[in-house]
Amino acid sequence: MMKFYVIVVIIILFVEVEASQLRSFNNPLNGKSIDIFFVVDESNSKITNINFERLKTALKSIATELNPVGGSPCFGVYFFGATSSVRSIAPFPTCSITLLNTYLGQIQRAMAQPNPSSLVSALTSIESSCSISCRSNAPRVTIVFSHDPAPSAELAIRQLENNSGMTMMVVGIGSKATETIVEQLASYPPQYYAIHVASELELISTAQPIASFASNVPRLLGINQPLHTPSTSSAAYYTVQLNLLPYTKMNNKIIMFASNCPSCKVFGSLTEPNPVSDNTNQNANMRPFFAYSGYPNSKYYFRVPQNASRLFVSVLSNGMSGVYFVFDVFDLPALMTM
Predict the structure, then answer these.
(1) How far apart are CA 313 and CA 272, in angstroms?
(2) pTM for the full model?
(3) 110 vs 80: CA distance, rounded Å
């Protein structure tokens, strides 16, 4: 779990992050695109008027970081915990940063109502919106901001991950948002997606690293769904992820990753969302094969354990054009008898 420490000396604000900060949109396959949802707990007992405004400022700062030149982020913003129904502040997809800031600027703190809406209700709204409007070629990320995230939402979170290919980041604010709960709710690996800050003021100062981790969530590929990239840059990492949950509930699996770039290096990890040579060993289980045209291709094999959630795979490109990636999965075959 990432922790952010703030030391104020006169007017200097220094932020230490317990994880290497990635440059935003470091993965060329993401194309500076992201479908991202902000989910905010606005329970009146947990947030003051001034902190409500600071929270809005933090959301604007994160959104700005996710909108570089040439970027195409789409946002959805939902508030829960005060009114009886979830407040849709910015309907998904809101793909204009100017319009998003207008929505956030207009929103006021809501008065408490009986039977306030829950995180589960907000996640249900996100799943519905994403099923209609999420883009197939963009990573999908939801960031929850809460002083007291509810453990009872874990089932809904895992469902959103599995059904929508969503990566869940959970930002716990203050002492009541314990490390145990925040890590329990965030997507795996929690050292990247479970975040704790002491206050809304500290949240503003950590907008850049939060946006960086969100922007570098790899796009999701399905089994036997080829991905084609017309051109690649030499020495750049092209990273994808595979949702393993439908396949690893009962036993171990063999995952095959194939590419038509025989001299590209491949790195795979269950714990590093962006596996590179600095944090992951190169996959040595490569087998060449020949396509019908005779062009040499490569297959790489990963044995993943039962209940593994995601496999992250990076290809270190050599600058080749017309590169294809594809995943397949199969069981270990039964042992033959003599």
Answers:
(1) 9
(2) 0.88
(3) 10
